[in-house]
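Support request, please re-run this one:
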Amino acid sequence: MSKALDILVIDDEEVIIDAVIKICALDNYSIDSANNFKTASEKISKNHYSIILCDIMMPDGDGFQILDELNNRNIDSTIIMTTGYSTVENAVKSLYKGAVDFIPKPFTVDELLSSVYRANKYQIIKEKQKLLSLQKNSDELLYVTGPAKYLRLGYSTWICQEREGSVLIGVCDLFIKTIETIQEIEFQENDEEIAQGICCASFKCGNDRIHKILSPISGRIVEVNDNIKNNPNLIEKDPYFEGWIYRVIPANIEYEIKYLIPCSSDRI
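Re-run finished. Output below.
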């Protein structure tokens, strides 16, 4: 009989599975597990999971196969990838292919719970969006997509290319809708280097969770948006224009842009 569970964790390391089970139990999630691709595929066929937490590399398969399987079967589970920093490029690729987030190993309790919290909110938004799409006269917007010329890293952050060769970096409205009210922002400073897929800022929110912001591009920060330092809510009010975070000189945009998704593709 098919079961509906909150989370399926897929990892060939039992210590990781045990850690996820113990940590996620703190927030009362129901959890199932699989330690290889074959078992995971069988469980996905028989049960429904709101969230799938999947390691990218496994002995008999990888996380990309899980993503492909979900897409091919039209399964709407939200997927989070786990990875070591040595495979950040693969993790960025997973966002391009549909994962909502990735967290590095070893992860902390707060990192895991914050990521699962966002994934759960993202799943709720997706389900509401499906219901709204069935209502012909509904004009309700659950979130705002980025301007057509913007490029996004998964559903988390965006870039806008400027004429002088710099780019603006900001946070997608869909990401903002998966967190509580922003209370405080931790920035990096001018002249610091940031890397695609690595945390470049963090939000402390009303529920005391810390949400890390993944940089959509590598480069050097040349300006921090002073307006949001004193008014963090500006990001929530105007995420695509006044609420940008950094102005950056890209290091290798020609290579990294292949993992960014045009916001124009979000329009029907």
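The CA atoms of residues 228 and 234 lie 6 Å apart. The mean pLDDT is 92.
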